[in-house]
């Protein structure tokens, strides 16, 4: 297998890279060999990235959910790929997002599935994982399960050539909130608010939190 | 109504979307709307870098100083936000998406439940309703349109501009589209 992994996060130290590192770790530990890891950060580098895409037989593109779909630069990359002949290639995606429910990512997942078909590639799976914002400040006890799951994804890629569907199902966790969950969810959302407020406070910007510069 | 009309066509040589925009702007003005147009390919709108300054350091303001500022200034004052984009690789253009990514300073980072789903808290009292008109590409089929229109409905929920978004293709004349958009 010639694997090409693409990290579609614009951020310097990204949650996407943390998840991909775990996946690659599992992939290598299971004997996975030649792989390339490319960062989709600048438009001027896209031709070089296309080269990696063309040389690989298995491709994995990971990105954070931006406004219900892929970051703009990832869309530029997909528009380039759309021009190529990808018959015989295997293509998978990882979509990580902040909101807990997988439902938010379901819509771009449908797009990615259709995209894979349209370019003539074979799907190796589409991973959707919510609740990822904040993993950089969470203690290992909270992230251990998540990281292990991503190790196992990499392992399954090396051993079977696909991202294990059962694992994908497990990683999706919650599709949408049921009514009985709402009181607990409201509590959790207060916690999410604190995550942002803490950063605002550290930046001396808490009092300006609700500023309306364009009113 | 005040209507923001955004042209997501990246290719100046391919002008059918541009012609549609002209027709739509005229039709909207004929219906007593104030139309403010943006031709995205003529503007400098850089990629969102995910720095979170707009939510944690300079609330409501993006760190990047470019032409997106012109759009920010209009959004909270507009009634309708209309995207006109060719379909490329099965979705709206990367040019349009890049602009959309830069919209998040207009929201607040806190999360609230809207119809039992997570969405971001409003920063402003009012947001325009999202509408989107697409020009089909050669391979566009009904499945593609459903995927795109469903995605627009989701974006509309996050944009907090209210329901009833108009999604269609350039198959509908600018007159018909203007009628739909102008209907409250």
Specify the biggest β-sheet of chain A.
Answer: 5 strands, parallel
Count of strand segments of chain B: 8
Strand proportion of chain A: 5-15%
Give Rg of chain B in angstroms.
16 Å
Structural class of chain B: alpha/beta
User: In whole angstroms, how far apart are the ends of chain A?
Assistant: 54 Å
What labels would you give this structure?
heterodimer; A: about 220 residues; alpha/beta; five-stranded parallel beta sheet; 5 strands; B: about 180 residues; six-stranded mixed beta sheet; about 35% helix; about 25% strand
Describe the model.
The complex is a heterodimer of chains A (215) and B (184). By secondary structure, chain A is an alpha/beta fold. Chain A has helices at residues 15-29, 46-55, 72-81, 103-118, 140-160, 165-172, 182-202, and strands spanning 3-7, 35-39, 58-64, 90-96, 122-129. In chain A, helix 4 (103-118) links the parallel strand 4 (90-96) and strand 5. In chain A, helix 1 packs across helix 5 (140-160) and helix 2 crosses helix 3 (72-81). The longest helix of chain A is centred in the last third of the chain and has 21 residues, at 140-160. In chain B, 33% of the residues lie in helices and 26% in strands. Chain B has helices at residues 16-30, 53-56, 68-74, 94-101, 142-158, 174-182; strands at residues 2-7, 34-39, 80-88, 91-92, 107-114, 117-122, 129-135, 167-169. Chain B is globular. The model of chain B has no long low-confidence stretch (mean pLDDT 96). With 184 residues, chain B is α/β, with parallel strands linked by helices. Chains A and B meet through helix 3, helix 4 and helix 7 of A and helix 4, strand 5 and helix 5 of B.
């Amino acid at each position: 297998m010639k694997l090409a992994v693409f990290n579609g996060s614009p951020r310097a130290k990204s949650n996407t890279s943390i998840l991909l590192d775990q996946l690659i770790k599992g992939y290598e530990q299971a004997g996975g060999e030649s792989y390339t890891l490319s960062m989709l950060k600048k438009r001027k580098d896209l031709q070089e990235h296309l080269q990696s895409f063309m040389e690989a037989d298995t491709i994995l593109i990971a990105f954070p959910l931006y406004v219900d779909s892929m970051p703009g630069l990832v869309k530029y990359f997909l528009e380039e790929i759309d021009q190529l002949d990808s018959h015989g290639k295997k293509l998978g995606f990882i979509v990580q997002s902040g909101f807990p429910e997988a439902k938010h990512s379901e819509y771009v997942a449908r797009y990615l599935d259709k995209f894979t078909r349209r370019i003539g590639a074979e799907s190796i799976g589409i991973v959707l994982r919510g609740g990822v914002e904040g993993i950089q400040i969470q203690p290992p006890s909270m992230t251990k399960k998540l990281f292990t799951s991503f190790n196992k994804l990499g392992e399954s890629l090396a051993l079977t050539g696909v991202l294990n569907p059962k694992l994908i199902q497990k990683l999706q966790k919650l599709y949408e909130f049921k009514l009985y969950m709402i009181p607990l969810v409201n509590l959790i959302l207060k916690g999410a608010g604190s995550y942002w407020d803490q950063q605002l406070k550290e930046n001396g910007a808490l009092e300006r939190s609700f500023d309306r510069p364009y009113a | 109504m005040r209507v923001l009309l955004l042209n997501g066509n990246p290719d100046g040589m391919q002008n059918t979307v541009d012609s549609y925009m002209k027709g739509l702007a005229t039709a909207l003005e004929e219906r007593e709307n104030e139309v403010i147009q943006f031709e995205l390919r003529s503007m400098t709108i850089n990629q969102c870098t995910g720095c979170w300054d707009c939510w944690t350091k300079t609330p409501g303001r993006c760190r990047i100083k470019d032409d997106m500022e012109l759009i920010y200034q209009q959004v909270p004052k507009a009634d309708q936000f209309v995207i006109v984009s060719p379909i490329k690789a099965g979705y709206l253009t990367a040019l349009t998406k890049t602009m959309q990514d830069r919209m998040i300073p207009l929201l607040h980072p806190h999360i609230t439940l809207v119809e039992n789903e997570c969405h971001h808290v409003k920063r402003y009292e009012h947001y325009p309703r999202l509408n989107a008109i697409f020009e089909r590409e050669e391979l566009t089929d009904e499945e593609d349109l459903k995927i795109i229109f469903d995605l627009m409905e989701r974006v509309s929920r996050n944009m907090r501009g209210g329901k009833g978004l108009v999604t269609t293709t350039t198959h509908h004349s600018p007159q018909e589209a203007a009628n739909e958009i102008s209907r409250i």
